[in-house]
Amino acid sequence: MNLDEALKTFIIESGELLEQMEAALLRIEQDPDDPDIINDIFRAAHTIKGSAGLFGLDYIVSFTHVAESVLDRVRSGELHIDGDLAALLLESADHIGTLVGHTAKGEEPNTESADLSIAIMERLGAYLGNKEKKTEGKKGEEKKAGVPAELDHKIGKEGGSAVESDNWHISLRFGKDVLRNGMDPLSFIRYLATLGRIVHIVTLIDSIPPLKEMDAETCYLGFEIAFNSAADKSTIEGVFEFVRDDCQIRILPPNSKIGEYLALIQDLPEEDMRLGEILVLCGTLTQCELEKMLQQQQESGAPVKIGEALVEQHIVQAPVVEAALQKQKQVKETKTSESSLIRVDAAKLDQLINLVGELIIAGAGASLAALRSGQADLIESTATLSRMVEEVRDSALSLRMVQIGATFNKFQRVVRDVSKELGKDIRLEISGAETELDKTVVEKIGDPLTHLVRNSMDHGIESAEVRLARGKPAQGTLKLNAYHDSGSIVIEVSDDGGGLNKDKILAKAIERGLVKPEQQLSDAEIYNLIFEAGFSTADAVSNLSGRGVGMDVVRRNIQALRGTVDIESEMGKGATMRIRLPLTLAIIDGFLVGVGNAAYVVPLDMVLECIEMSDAERNATANAERGYLNLRGEVLPYLRLRDMFEVEGTPPRRENVVVVQYAGQKAGLVVDKLMGEFQTVIKPLGKVFGGVRGIGGFTILGSGEVALILDVQRLVHQLGNREQKMITAGQ
């Protein structure tokens, strides 16, 4: 791994660690004494600081060190996390993210970031008191992390060859190419000092050749280090993560650790484990050392007792190995499997999906040619190929499916910060976090959800005084829920606030000329007026809302994802914003229908059944674009696609009705013929055709012809509004 790749890995992993740190900080307010949560926060900060130190990012190291020191005092019980400290640590995490962002852009922090670093460090310092100063003045035993000059001075003064019995002994031989790979050996020594105290260090120069033979880019150095630290072996080994493959590293624990290891081995659960696993669990052997030992055993080809080899190579002390062997006798050997994850560039997944789409189109063409040929063997082969292509399609799409829980969890911070800004007590409830949808949809739904969440908190949930006066609990509740429904994913943002005032919304719409006074609107249409550009019923403009900006953007962004947003509200009890989105934006199962010489695709997940229209029903509605059918006693509104798309020619004597359902509403689509299931690769319409009613895209058939994909959501919604208007007019 070269330096650029390692730096990219650091940036990506820092983002993930900061997300974990934020989630833990939000949980800690509900359970401030949970040691596991506190350790999660500390480990995240500690890992970021350590990795930043390897790249010489002193502005991240020095800032994170102060935050880590505060967390260390929390971990030791000297400090208690309250609301103020949690808020400060959240602010610190945000600032670390900003500093990492500067690194990602390849720039140094600007003046504003540097000033903010100082300001936050001073506020953090208030929780440390004089501890840092006292530590520095204690015979020079410890130095502040992130100050290379002081550390270099310390190493120079404390050189020696003696090793104390209660110190770790680190034998380090850097690889010859470490400098060429962009790594500075001394940076690892500096970072090691942040984990404890370097008691003695001896620089080994026996590999240095004569001056004439020296290469300035080759590293010849080695070090023998006596190191005093409370860190475990795995943490110390992690210091050398980026050079581990090119170096020889031996880490021997202090004598005082042996008793701890023996006790840990004795306390291990009665489970089947190998010798190496036992030693790794008790902390005397790292996973990397175990893997290297197993690799050596495999390369030698001869049976080697790992326990004896570990003792001979001075990796593990003999008493510890003996205790592990004794523990192993009590249990049976078994294998444990661990799931592994690899990072894949999203662009590569997109390319794979595109190729699968083209494969589907080519496969459809091959199947059609086989049918025309009439050759049974060829037809059977293409049918097998089609099944395999379908499996490949499902597997490829599953690679891009992610759980929406990660997106939902980000709103814990939003709700916390906004509720404090508004002076309201609001809690967030999350359900359906395991619901999966396409990664592309997840990335684009974040902003619309943020608008809806903030709007519900500002306009929907009342102040504590108003809630108590209305007989509600003082604490408001905001809910995020997700679930699958008829081939779509539904995301709900609900609150238990005052609900939408439809009279006020209608009056505002009439005032702005959006609605005529004599118009009859359904409740749903009135509620949807809040999505009009510039529409707002707020009495005052706040930092969060009141300018009429945002809700129109929400609807526009959701429609761009081929989705819809609806509102349910009950005055005094709350409101629910319901977003419906397709599971994927790329490939779907479709149902092919024909009208005249044209073909149309209906998303298969929305098709309930197909029925034949009777002669009586056809004659009764022959000249109607829209009408109603009797579906086993149920009134079914329908659309005649031939009339809707102005298809010329005489309709056939037998017409069929495709019954579809979306958001709980049923409708019928009258077509000339049914052509069966069809794997559909969705192609977006161009700007010229973007406003065509009832069309959501197109696809290419195996014959090379184009078939339009029906926008069932809008067609059903259109029929539902028509029905609601007729009911309202009848009243």
Fraction of helical residues: 40-55%
Could you tell me how far the N terminus lies from the C terminus, measured between alpha carbons in angstroms? 73 Å
> What's the arrangement of strands in the largest beta sheet?
6-8-9-11-10
How many DSSP H or I helices? 26
Total beta-strand segments: 21
Structural class: alpha+beta
Average residue-wise pLDDT: 78
Largest sheet: 5 strands, mixed
Query: What is the CA-based Rg, rounded?
Result: 34 Å
Stretches where pLDDT is under 50 for at least 5 consecutive residues are 130-164, 331-339
What is the global morphology? globular
How many discrete domains? 5
Provide key terms for this protein.
Four Helix Bundle (Hemerythrin (Met), subunit A); 731 residues; 5 domains; globular; alpha+beta; five-stranded mixed sheet
Question: How does the SSE layout of this entry go?
Answer:
Blueprint lengths: L2 H26 L6 H20 L3 H18 L7 H22 L6 H15 L5 H6 L11 H10 L10 E6 L11 H9 L3 E8 L17 E7 L4 H6 L9 E5 L3 H12 L7 H8 L4 H14 L5 H7 L5 H11 L17 H28 L2 H24 L1 E3 L1 H5 L1 H12 L3 E6 L4 E3 H22 L3 H6 L6 E10 L2 E8 L6 H10 L11 H6 L22 H10 L3 E7 L3 E9 L4 E9 L2 E6 L3 E6 L2 H6 L5 E6 L2 E7 H4 L11 E7 L2 E7 L1 E9 L13 E6 L5 E5 L1 H19 L1
Parallel strand pairs: 6-8, 13-21, 16-18
Antiparallel strand pairs: 1-3, 1-4, 2-3, 5-7, 8-9, 9-11, 10-11, 12-13, 12-19, 14-17, 15-16, 17-18, 20-21
Helix pairs in contact: 1-2, 1-4, 2-3, 3-4, 3-5, 4-5, 10-11, 10-14, 13-14, 15-16, 18-19, 19-23
